[in-house]
Inverse folding.
């Protein structure tokens, strides 16, 4: 090997060994290199703002840890964990049996941690006169049995169904728990006319401008310019709006856990970060972003 090439390789290896970030020296005068651990965190779009807020807060008090957060959907995060391109996968649904089998076949034993709770809010345009719906009605709306708002007590108008895309954990939850009523043998699907949108913001934007649209979203993404519909398990009620109180009491029927998955038992900086997430500072961030914190 030529000497110049060897010299360049030596410099490159030295640079790679010094992965870190600059910080103040002990006397505050000259910068020093602080060794850094990078935690790749990928997955649920429902959780991405929460995960970003957690990462930003944690890095302030732990400058030796860098946390890289990206979305893409729960399925994307779990796939990244299986392929070992993420250290932590965020998911707004439980890992599927086939995903767990694929992970184990790839030498990854997924470890599950519940980090917060959420409610699925049913949202419509503020001009929509429908105030409450049952899970049966929601199932029939989204499967194409009910097609006009007049059929559920609203004004005459064809219903425009909005959904997240199929890699979304929220999409999977809604399909399994609402459209299929939690019945694993049910094969009912979304109506073919359902519009699949890539983000929570896309659903909200469409509902704001379309008086006949209906969508669903995580509670943390609901804004005051959207109307939230009260939901009941059946016509006998009670019809409840999503909130921290109704999730904690179990009276709101569309609530769920939010998860982080790791490849095996977490250790080192990853374990410390996850332990912090379960603590009061991180759970206060959960509340501030409109999600439901874990009970102490």
């Amino acid at each position: 090997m030529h000497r110049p090439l060897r010299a360049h390789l030596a410099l490159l290896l030295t640079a790679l060994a010094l992965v870190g970030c600059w910080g103040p020296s002990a006397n505050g005068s000259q910068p020093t290199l602080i060794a850094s651990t990078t935690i790749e965190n990928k997955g649920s779009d429902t959780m991405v703002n929460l995960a970003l807020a957690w990462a930003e807060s944690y890095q302030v008090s732990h400058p030796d840890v860098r946390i890289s957060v990206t979305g893409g959907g729960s399925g994307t995060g779990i796939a990244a964990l299986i392929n070992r391109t993420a250290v932590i996968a965020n998911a707004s649904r439980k890992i599927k049996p086939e995903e767990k089998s694929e992970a184990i076949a790839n030498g990854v034993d997924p470890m599950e941690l519940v980090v917060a709770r959420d409610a699925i809010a049913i949202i419509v345009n503020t001009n929509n006169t429908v105030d409450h719906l049952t899970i049966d009605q929601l199932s029939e709306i989204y499967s194409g049995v009910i097609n006009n708002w007049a059929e559920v007590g609203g004004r005459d108008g064809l219903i425009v169904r909005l959904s997240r895309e199929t890699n979304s954990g929220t999409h999977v939850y809604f399909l399994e728990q609402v459209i299929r009523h939690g019945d694993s043998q049910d094969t009912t699907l979304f109506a073919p006319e359902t519009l699949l949108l890539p983000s929570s913001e896309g659903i909200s934007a469409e509902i704001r401008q379309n008086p006949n649209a209906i969508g669903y979203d995580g509670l943390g993404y609901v804004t005051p310019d959207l109307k939230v519909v009260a939901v009941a398990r059946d016509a006998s009620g009670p019809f409840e709006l999503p909130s921290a109180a109704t999730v904690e009491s179990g009276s709101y029927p569309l609530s769920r856990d939010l998860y982080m998955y790791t490849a095996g038992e977490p250790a080192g900086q990853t374990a410390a970060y996850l332990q912090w997430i379960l603590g009061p500072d991180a759970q206060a961030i959960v509340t501030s972003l409109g999600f439901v914190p874990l009970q102490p």
User: Anything to note?
Assistant: Confidence is low (pLDDT under 50) at residues 1-35.
